[in-house]
User: Which sequence fits this backbone?
Protein backbone atom coordinates (compact mmCIF):
# COMPACT_ATOMS: atom_id res chain seq x y z
CA UNK A 1 0.00 0.00 0.00
CA UNK A 2 1.28 3.40 -0.90
CA UNK A 3 1.76 5.58 2.11
CA UNK A 4 0.14 8.99 1.75
CA UNK A 5 2.08 11.98 3.02
CA UNK A 6 -0.13 14.99 3.72
CA UNK A 7 0.86 18.40 2.45
CA UNK A 8 2.41 20.40 5.27
CA UNK A 9 -0.48 22.89 5.32
CA UNK A 10 -3.21 20.22 5.35
CA UNK A 11 -4.43 18.46 8.48
CA UNK A 12 -5.86 15.02 7.69
CA UNK A 13 -9.62 14.97 7.90
CA UNK A 14 -9.82 18.79 7.95
CA UNK A 15 -10.40 21.21 5.03
CA UNK A 16 -7.43 23.12 3.78
CA UNK A 17 -7.05 26.61 5.20
CA UNK A 18 -7.88 29.46 2.84
CA UNK A 19 -5.04 30.72 0.67
CA UNK A 20 -3.45 33.95 1.72
CA UNK A 21 -4.27 36.82 -0.62
CA UNK A 22 -1.47 37.71 -3.00
CA UNK A 23 0.60 40.69 -2.00
CA UNK A 24 -0.51 43.78 -3.94
CA UNK A 25 1.77 44.73 -6.81
CA UNK A 26 3.60 48.01 -6.48
CA UNK A 27 2.00 50.75 -8.51
CA UNK A 28 3.78 51.40 -11.78
CA UNK A 29 5.40 54.82 -11.87
CA UNK A 30 4.56 56.98 -14.89
CA UNK A 31 7.85 58.27 -16.26
CA UNK A 32 7.73 61.08 -18.81
CA UNK A 33 10.76 61.30 -21.14
CA UNK A 34 11.08 64.74 -22.73
CA UNK A 35 13.09 64.81 -25.94
CA UNK A 36 12.35 61.11 -26.38
CA UNK A 37 12.86 61.16 -30.15
CA UNK A 38 16.30 62.75 -29.87
CA UNK A 39 19.73 61.13 -29.77
CA UNK A 40 19.86 60.76 -25.99
CA UNK A 41 16.16 60.65 -25.10
CA UNK A 42 15.61 57.69 -27.39
CA UNK A 43 18.52 55.82 -25.86
CA UNK A 44 17.33 56.56 -22.34
CA UNK A 45 13.88 55.19 -23.14
CA UNK A 46 15.39 52.07 -24.70
CA UNK A 47 17.60 51.58 -21.64
CA UNK A 48 14.86 51.94 -19.01
CA UNK A 49 11.85 50.38 -20.76
CA UNK A 50 12.40 46.89 -19.34
CA UNK A 51 12.38 48.15 -15.76
CA UNK A 52 8.78 47.29 -14.90
CA UNK A 53 8.65 49.79 -12.06
CA UNK A 54 8.20 52.46 -14.73
CA UNK A 55 5.59 53.05 -17.40
CA UNK A 56 7.09 55.21 -20.11
CA UNK A 57 5.50 58.21 -21.76
CA UNK A 58 7.54 59.45 -24.72
CA UNK A 59 7.22 63.18 -25.39
CA UNK A 60 8.20 65.08 -28.51
CA UNK A 61 7.14 68.34 -30.09
CA UNK A 62 5.64 66.30 -32.93
CA UNK A 63 3.04 63.69 -31.96
CA UNK A 64 3.73 61.62 -35.09
CA UNK A 65 7.39 61.20 -34.14
CA UNK A 66 6.56 60.32 -30.54
CA UNK A 67 3.91 57.81 -31.67
CA UNK A 68 6.32 56.10 -34.05
CA UNK A 69 9.02 55.87 -31.39
CA UNK A 70 6.52 54.51 -28.84
CA UNK A 71 5.25 51.88 -31.27
CA UNK A 72 8.77 50.69 -32.04
CA UNK A 73 9.74 50.52 -28.37
CA UNK A 74 6.48 48.78 -27.43
CA UNK A 75 7.15 46.07 -30.03
CA UNK A 76 10.72 45.59 -28.83
CA UNK A 77 9.88 45.45 -25.13
CA UNK A 78 6.54 43.66 -25.33
CA UNK A 79 4.83 46.25 -23.14
CA UNK A 80 2.83 49.40 -23.71
CA UNK A 81 4.66 52.69 -24.18
CA UNK A 82 2.63 55.89 -24.47
CA UNK A 83 3.26 58.92 -26.69
CA UNK A 84 2.37 62.59 -26.24
CA UNK A 85 3.15 65.90 -27.89
CA UNK A 86 4.54 68.61 -25.62
CA UNK A 87 5.16 72.10 -26.91
CA UNK A 88 7.07 74.79 -25.04
CA UNK A 89 4.95 77.83 -24.30
CA UNK A 90 2.09 79.08 -22.19
CA UNK A 91 0.28 75.75 -21.88
CA UNK A 92 3.35 73.64 -21.09
CA UNK A 93 2.89 73.60 -17.31
CA UNK A 94 -0.82 72.86 -17.67
CA UNK A 95 -0.13 70.00 -20.09
CA UNK A 96 2.47 68.59 -17.70
CA UNK A 97 0.00 68.69 -14.82
CA UNK A 98 -2.62 66.96 -16.94
CA UNK A 99 -0.22 64.07 -17.63
CA UNK A 100 0.45 63.71 -13.88
CA UNK A 101 3.75 61.81 -14.20
CA UNK A 102 5.56 60.33 -11.21
CA UNK A 103 8.88 61.44 -12.69
CA UNK A 104 10.26 63.50 -15.58
CA UNK A 105 13.50 62.89 -17.47
CA UNK A 106 14.58 65.91 -19.52
CA UNK A 107 16.83 64.96 -22.44
CA UNK A 108 15.80 67.86 -24.66
CA UNK A 109 18.37 70.65 -24.29
CA UNK A 110 20.07 72.89 -25.04
CA UNK A 111 20.20 73.91 -21.39
CA UNK A 112 20.86 77.55 -20.61
CA UNK A 113 21.28 79.89 -17.66
CA UNK A 114 18.00 80.33 -15.82
CA UNK A 115 16.20 77.81 -18.04
CA UNK A 116 14.33 75.98 -15.31
CA UNK A 117 10.87 76.04 -16.89
CA UNK A 118 10.69 72.29 -17.46
CA UNK A 119 12.01 71.45 -13.99
CA UNK A 120 9.59 73.92 -12.41
CA UNK A 121 6.64 72.49 -14.33
CA UNK A 122 7.60 68.97 -13.28
CA UNK A 123 7.75 69.90 -9.59
CA UNK A 124 4.48 71.84 -9.80
CA UNK A 125 2.89 68.72 -11.34
CA UNK A 126 4.10 66.63 -8.37
CA UNK A 127 6.84 64.83 -10.29
CA UNK A 128 10.45 64.08 -9.50
CA UNK A 129 12.86 65.56 -12.03
CA UNK A 130 16.18 64.46 -13.61
CA UNK A 131 18.05 66.02 -16.54
CA UNK A 132 21.25 65.38 -18.52
CA UNK A 133 22.46 69.00 -18.61
CA UNK A 134 26.17 69.79 -18.82
CA UNK A 135 25.95 73.58 -19.24
CA UNK A 136 27.90 75.39 -16.47
CA UNK A 137 25.55 78.39 -16.58
CA UNK A 138 22.52 76.15 -16.06
CA UNK A 139 24.06 73.92 -13.41
CA UNK A 140 25.52 76.84 -11.49
CA UNK A 141 22.09 78.17 -10.49
CA UNK A 142 20.01 75.00 -10.43
CA UNK A 143 20.04 74.20 -6.72
CA UNK A 144 19.40 77.71 -5.48
CA UNK A 145 16.57 78.20 -7.96
CA UNK A 146 14.67 75.01 -7.13
CA UNK A 147 15.73 73.59 -3.77
CA UNK A 148 13.06 75.31 -1.68
CA UNK A 149 10.28 74.37 -4.10
CA UNK A 150 11.43 70.73 -4.35
CA UNK A 151 11.76 70.32 -0.57
CA UNK A 152 8.36 71.87 0.05
CA UNK A 153 6.81 69.39 -2.40
CA UNK A 154 8.86 66.48 -0.93
CA UNK A 155 10.32 65.78 -4.35
CA UNK A 156 13.81 65.24 -5.77
CA UNK A 157 15.20 67.39 -8.59
CA UNK A 158 18.55 66.25 -9.99
CA UNK A 159 20.51 68.10 -12.69
CA UNK A 160 23.63 67.17 -14.62
CA UNK A 161 23.06 63.40 -14.69
CA UNK A 162 25.29 62.76 -17.68
CA UNK A 163 28.90 61.97 -18.65
CA UNK A 164 29.86 65.33 -17.23
CA UNK A 165 29.65 66.33 -14.48
CA UNK A 166 28.04 63.20 -12.96
CA UNK A 167 30.29 60.41 -14.27
CA UNK A 168 33.43 62.55 -14.40
CA UNK A 169 32.91 63.72 -10.81
CA UNK A 170 32.18 60.20 -9.58
CA UNK A 171 35.41 58.93 -11.13
CA UNK A 172 37.41 61.84 -9.70
CA UNK A 173 35.98 61.14 -6.24
CA UNK A 174 36.94 57.48 -6.51
CA UNK A 175 40.50 58.20 -7.67
CA UNK A 176 41.19 60.88 -5.05
CA UNK A 177 39.48 59.37 -2.02
CA UNK A 178 42.68 58.48 -0.10
CA UNK A 179 45.06 61.15 -1.45
CA UNK A 180 46.60 63.68 0.90
CA UNK A 181 46.69 66.32 -1.82
CA UNK A 182 45.57 66.65 -5.44
CA UNK A 183 47.77 68.47 -7.94
CA UNK A 184 45.84 67.97 -11.18
CA UNK A 185 42.72 66.37 -12.66
CA UNK A 186 42.61 65.92 -16.43
CA UNK A 187 39.49 64.69 -18.20
CA UNK A 188 38.86 63.88 -21.84
CA UNK A 189 36.17 62.48 -24.09
CA UNK A 190 36.60 61.03 -27.58
CA UNK A 191 33.26 60.00 -29.15
CA UNK A 192 33.02 57.49 -31.96
CA UNK A 193 32.64 59.19 -35.32
CA UNK A 194 29.68 57.12 -36.51
CA UNK A 195 27.47 58.16 -33.63
CA UNK A 196 24.54 60.46 -34.32
CA UNK A 197 24.88 64.01 -33.00
CA UNK A 198 21.76 66.11 -32.52
CA UNK A 199 21.44 69.73 -33.58
CA UNK A 200 21.13 70.79 -29.93
CA UNK A 201 24.56 69.31 -29.15
CA UNK A 202 26.14 71.18 -32.08
CA UNK A 203 24.41 74.40 -30.99
CA UNK A 204 25.89 73.94 -27.55
CA UNK A 205 29.42 73.53 -28.95
CA UNK A 206 29.12 76.53 -31.26
CA UNK A 207 27.78 78.59 -28.38
CA UNK A 208 31.22 78.69 -26.72
CA UNK A 209 33.70 77.80 -29.50
CA UNK A 210 36.14 80.71 -29.66
CA UNK A 211 34.80 82.23 -26.43
CA UNK A 212 36.17 82.17 -22.91
CA UNK A 213 35.33 79.09 -20.85
CA UNK A 214 36.03 78.36 -17.15
CA UNK A 215 39.35 76.66 -16.40
CA UNK A 216 41.04 75.82 -13.10
CA UNK A 217 44.67 76.97 -13.06
CA UNK A 218 47.11 77.29 -10.14
CA UNK A 219 44.37 76.66 -7.64
CA UNK A 220 41.97 79.35 -8.92
CA UNK A 221 39.19 79.63 -11.45
CA UNK A 222 40.47 81.28 -14.63
CA UNK A 223 39.56 81.23 -18.33
CA UNK A 224 40.76 79.67 -21.58
CA UNK A 225 39.39 79.82 -25.13
CA UNK A 226 37.05 77.01 -26.12
CA UNK A 227 38.13 74.76 -29.00
CA UNK A 228 41.57 76.36 -29.38
CA UNK A 229 44.95 75.13 -28.19
CA UNK A 230 44.96 71.54 -29.50
CA UNK A 231 47.07 68.76 -27.98
CA UNK A 232 47.49 65.02 -28.54
CA UNK A 233 45.14 62.57 -26.81
CA UNK A 234 45.14 58.78 -26.69
CA UNK A 235 42.65 56.72 -24.72
CA UNK A 236 43.50 53.05 -24.29
CA UNK A 237 43.67 51.20 -27.62
CA UNK A 238 42.00 54.01 -29.59
CA UNK A 239 44.16 55.78 -32.19
CA UNK A 240 45.53 59.16 -31.09
CA UNK A 241 43.40 62.22 -31.78
CA UNK A 242 43.63 65.99 -31.72
CA UNK A 243 41.99 67.31 -28.51
CA UNK A 244 40.91 70.81 -27.50
CA UNK A 245 39.54 72.46 -24.33
CA UNK A 246 35.75 72.31 -24.05
CA UNK A 247 33.22 73.90 -21.73
CA UNK A 248 32.08 71.74 -18.83
CA UNK A 249 31.19 72.36 -15.20
CA UNK A 250 34.10 70.24 -13.99
CA UNK A 251 36.59 73.07 -13.53
CA UNK A 252 34.25 74.97 -11.20
CA UNK A 253 33.12 71.80 -9.44
CA UNK A 254 36.23 69.63 -9.06
CA UNK A 255 38.82 72.35 -8.46
CA UNK A 256 37.35 73.61 -5.18
CA UNK A 257 35.91 70.22 -4.15
CA UNK A 258 39.29 68.47 -4.22
CA UNK A 259 41.38 71.57 -3.44
CA UNK A 260 43.38 71.04 -6.64
CA UNK A 261 46.62 73.00 -6.41
CA UNK A 262 47.35 72.85 -10.14
CA UNK A 263 44.82 72.48 -12.94
CA UNK A 264 41.55 70.85 -13.90
CA UNK A 265 41.15 70.44 -17.66
CA UNK A 266 38.51 68.85 -19.87
CA UNK A 267 39.29 68.17 -23.54
CA UNK A 268 37.31 66.71 -26.42
CA UNK A 269 38.60 64.94 -29.51
CA UNK A 270 36.41 64.21 -32.53
CA UNK A 271 37.32 61.20 -34.65
CA UNK A 272 36.74 63.11 -37.88
CA UNK A 273 39.73 65.35 -38.44
CA UNK A 274 37.60 67.36 -40.89
CA UNK A 275 35.01 68.09 -38.19
CA UNK A 276 37.67 68.81 -35.59
CA UNK A 277 39.56 71.29 -37.78
CA UNK A 278 36.31 72.88 -38.98
CA UNK A 279 35.14 73.70 -35.45
CA UNK A 280 38.61 74.96 -34.56
CA UNK A 281 38.46 77.22 -37.63
CA UNK A 282 35.07 78.57 -36.58
CA UNK A 283 36.41 79.16 -33.06
CA UNK A 284 39.36 81.12 -34.45
CA UNK A 285 37.03 83.08 -36.70
CA UNK A 286 34.77 83.99 -33.82
CA UNK A 287 37.77 85.14 -31.80
CA UNK A 288 38.77 87.42 -34.68
CA UNK A 289 35.26 88.77 -35.15
CA UNK A 290 34.49 86.99 -38.43
CA UNK A 291 31.31 85.26 -37.20
CA UNK A 292 28.58 87.00 -35.23
CA UNK A 293 26.30 84.03 -34.54
CA UNK A 294 27.90 80.60 -34.77
CA UNK A 295 24.97 78.60 -33.29
CA UNK A 296 22.80 79.42 -36.31
CA UNK A 297 25.16 77.21 -38.37
CA UNK A 298 24.22 74.14 -36.32
CA UNK A 299 21.43 72.77 -38.59
CA UNK A 300 23.68 72.97 -41.65
CA UNK A 301 26.58 71.28 -39.83
CA UNK A 302 24.24 68.55 -38.57
CA UNK A 303 23.26 67.79 -42.16
CA UNK A 304 26.89 67.80 -43.30
CA UNK A 305 27.67 65.07 -40.78
CA UNK A 306 25.97 62.72 -43.19
CA UNK A 307 29.16 63.05 -45.25
CA UNK A 308 31.86 63.70 -42.67
CA UNK A 309 30.95 60.61 -40.60
CA UNK A 310 31.40 58.24 -43.55
CA UNK A 311 34.17 55.73 -42.99
CA UNK A 312 34.52 56.51 -39.29
CA UNK A 313 34.42 53.95 -36.49
CA UNK A 314 31.89 53.06 -33.80
CA UNK A 315 34.54 53.20 -31.05
CA UNK A 316 34.96 56.00 -28.55
CA UNK A 317 36.23 56.59 -25.07
CA UNK A 318 36.52 58.70 -21.94
CA UNK A 319 39.45 59.22 -19.60
CA UNK A 320 40.02 60.72 -16.15
CA UNK A 321 43.53 61.11 -14.71
CA UNK A 322 44.54 62.35 -11.27
CA UNK A 323 47.98 63.39 -10.02
CA UNK A 324 48.71 64.00 -6.35
CA UNK A 325 50.38 62.68 -3.23
CA UNK A 326 49.31 59.76 -1.09
CA UNK A 327 49.21 59.55 2.70
CA UNK A 328 52.97 58.83 2.80
CA UNK A 329 53.77 61.85 0.64
CA UNK A 330 54.71 59.83 -2.46
CA UNK A 331 53.66 61.24 -5.82
CA UNK A 332 50.91 59.18 -7.44
CA UNK A 333 49.17 59.17 -10.81
CA UNK A 334 45.89 57.34 -11.24
CA UNK A 335 43.93 56.78 -14.45
CA UNK A 336 40.45 55.58 -15.25
CA UNK A 337 39.43 54.98 -18.85
CA UNK A 338 36.33 53.77 -20.61
CA UNK A 339 36.34 52.37 -24.14
CA UNK A 340 33.05 51.91 -25.98
CA UNK A 341 32.66 49.41 -28.81
CA UNK A 342 29.85 48.53 -31.26
CA UNK A 343 28.43 52.05 -31.26
CA UNK A 344 27.50 51.93 -27.57
CA UNK A 345 29.30 55.15 -26.66
CA UNK A 346 26.20 57.36 -27.03
CA UNK A 347 24.53 55.36 -24.25
CA UNK A 348 27.09 56.57 -21.71
CA UNK A 349 25.59 60.08 -21.28
CA UNK A 350 22.21 58.66 -20.23
CA UNK A 351 23.46 56.10 -17.73
CA UNK A 352 23.77 58.54 -14.80
CA UNK A 353 20.19 59.66 -15.48
CA UNK A 354 19.04 56.04 -15.30
CA UNK A 355 20.99 55.56 -12.06
CA UNK A 356 19.45 58.74 -10.63
CA UNK A 357 15.82 57.90 -11.39
CA UNK A 358 16.28 54.39 -9.97
CA UNK A 359 17.85 55.85 -6.83
CA UNK A 360 14.88 58.20 -6.44
CA UNK A 361 12.45 55.29 -6.87
CA UNK A 362 14.33 53.40 -4.14
CA UNK A 363 14.41 56.45 -1.82
CA UNK A 364 18.20 56.63 -1.97
CA UNK A 365 18.28 60.29 -3.02
CA UNK A 366 16.98 62.83 -0.53
CA UNK A 367 14.36 65.42 -1.33
CA UNK A 368 15.33 68.80 -2.67
CA UNK A 369 17.29 70.08 -5.67
CA UNK A 370 20.87 68.95 -6.18
CA UNK A 371 23.48 68.10 -8.79
CA UNK A 372 23.91 64.46 -9.79
CA UNK A 373 27.59 64.83 -8.89
CA UNK A 374 26.49 65.22 -5.26
CA UNK A 375 24.05 62.31 -5.37
CA UNK A 376 25.58 59.41 -7.35
CA UNK A 377 28.55 57.11 -6.79
CA UNK A 378 30.75 55.57 -9.45
CA UNK A 379 29.45 52.12 -8.51
CA UNK A 380 25.85 53.17 -9.15
CA UNK A 381 26.69 54.52 -12.62
CA UNK A 382 28.94 51.63 -13.62
CA UNK A 383 26.13 49.23 -12.68
CA UNK A 384 24.13 50.66 -15.60
CA UNK A 385 26.96 49.82 -18.05
CA UNK A 386 26.67 46.05 -17.83
CA UNK A 387 24.51 45.41 -20.87
CA UNK A 388 26.75 47.39 -23.25
CA UNK A 389 30.15 46.90 -24.85
CA UNK A 390 31.84 49.27 -22.42
CA UNK A 391 35.15 48.32 -20.85
CA UNK A 392 36.51 50.21 -17.85
CA UNK A 393 40.22 50.14 -17.00
CA UNK A 394 41.42 51.69 -13.74
CA UNK A 395 45.22 51.81 -13.55
CA UNK A 396 46.88 52.90 -10.32
CA UNK A 397 50.63 53.42 -10.04
CA UNK A 398 53.49 55.66 -9.09
CA UNK A 399 54.13 58.75 -11.19
CA UNK A 400 57.17 60.96 -11.68
Assistant:
Amino acid sequence: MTRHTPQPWITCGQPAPPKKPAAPRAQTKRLLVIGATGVFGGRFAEHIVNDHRFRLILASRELARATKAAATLSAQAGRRVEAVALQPGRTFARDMARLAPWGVINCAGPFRAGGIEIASAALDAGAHYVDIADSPAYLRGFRDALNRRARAARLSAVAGASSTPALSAAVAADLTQDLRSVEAITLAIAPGGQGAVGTAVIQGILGYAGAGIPAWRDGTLQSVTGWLGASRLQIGPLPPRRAVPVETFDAELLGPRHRVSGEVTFRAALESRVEQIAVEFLARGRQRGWFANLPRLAPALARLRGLTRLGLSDRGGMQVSVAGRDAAGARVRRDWSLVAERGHGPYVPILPAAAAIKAIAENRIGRGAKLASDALTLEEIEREMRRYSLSVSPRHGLGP
Summary: The first strand starts at residue 29 and ends at 34. The CA atoms of residues 237 and 339 lie 8 Å apart. The mean pLDDT is 90.
